[in-house]
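Structure request: Holliday junction branch migration complex subunit RuvA, Antarctobacter heliothermus.
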Amino acid sequence: MIGRIAGRIIYHGEDHVLIDVQGVGYVVYCSDRVRAGLPGAGEAAALFTDLLVREDLLQLFGFPTLVEKEWFRLLLSVQGVGAKAALAILGTLGPDGVSRALALGDWSAIKAARGIGPKTAQRVVMELKDKAPMVMAMGTAETQGSDSVTPVDVIETAPAATPAPPRAANAQAEALSALGNLGYAPSEAAGAVAEAAGAAPEADTAGLIRAALKLLAPKG
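Returned structure:
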């Protein structure tokens, strides 16, 4: 399995780039958004890759981050969604947009991607809404930085009487960060995470995200 390519770009194609890695040229298919963010010919570039194997075809697909690669793999698990459709969805929405669409059940956002019809968009939302928190948690861990919420922030904001153990606090912080990335206000996100953590103290990040999203879902 080829999981990452690093070399110099030889040229940009219509739907791919050719990357020279120590004298070997690799054709790597990318979304329009990813290709637009890559440097020009002769410049160094690196992409995480997923190798699609068929009876008569081997194709490499490239992504700037591991979390985007995982979204691609998850989208491929949906019936009727092939590599081209998965790239179209990611190219249109980006990984954060896909997270938001699945969290909100917004299949119309998925349908905005080129070549995606309403039935396919609805299927994506239905089949992935329970699996998405795992990738969302991965994305939160990947982007944790100096501006991210710390475990202390969660403990101080959430109405919990007893401080959570370090592992649980980290899960709460990552869940809170993920909900913030989806556009939820800090106060409502903290309340939902605290309630979810109170109901399931041993829940991991993905479990907290899933439970908090259910609490934040519109009622009715």
